[in-house]
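Chapter review: from sequence to fold.
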Amino acid sequence: MNVPSAPSYGDVQALQSAASATELVLFLSQFEALSGTDAATQQLATSLLNDARNVELALNGFAAGEAVILPGNIVGNDQLLAQQMIAAVRAGDVDQAFSTLIVQAQTSLLGQFQTMAVAAQDQDIREFATSVIPTLQNDLDAVLGTATLAPVSEVASSTTLDANDLNTTATYYAINIMERFLGQLTALVTTRRPIGLYAAKLIGDHQGGLLALGSYAASTSTYLPAMIPSADAPMADAVVAALGRRPTRGSARYDRVYLKEMIMGHFAALKFTDSVVASAQNPTIRQFAANVGPTINMHLVTARTLYRL
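The token string follows.
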């Protein structure tokens, strides 16, 4: 039996670095879509979100085949750009900051895939990176103003799922998008280690949920919007507003708002999950709900515990 060799350490690092760079593009674009005020810039952000989400799904799917785990957090130098975006949100300068930072983020992301395409030791990695480059090049051209991206729908659709199954799948997807985004934000903002560990746990768990739902959507010819939907925006807005106008010496106020929203959000998600387990006719969706129920409950219990500290 031929056992495929594991990727080299350098190739693994390259894949993980590309994953962080992809998460940065998602983070910046999600912030613009959520908090920006310029319609054209927000439309660009939603289109970039869709492309970056598709790259993320492809990258994680490929990495899984190589036995490489890609985290969903933003690390290394990518954190510096993310922190600049947070500072711009505090200053009320979201559109301008996004327009500047997204050029740097997209340039870095494209450059990393271009490097993998020629320098990776694994031929499969070189071929995969090459296949992604046209999308990333088009996205960079769009943020530079030399190309345009087609607008993307903010409404989920499917050629195979019925209305109930589509609504359930889209609801779970939206929950995971928002929770991962807020986890990434909190990991960058909090000064308290327990809150940081909680945020990291949520990033990982909701990343897993997004990948599972994204795979299911692809297998059922289902389109799921990549932006935080308007129905969930008030929760995200409340956490973003807790950033305040300027950094403080500690994050106690922000942390309490974040945990309060996590308690309310996970309580609602658990109630929704119980109803799906009890009534869903689609076995795949019912099993997904049954699988995530204990995780949602753990997130809820932990948020309540941390809130009382």
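Two observations follow directly from the output. Residues 117 and 216 are 28 Å apart (CA to CA). Residues 252-279 form the longest helix (28 residues).
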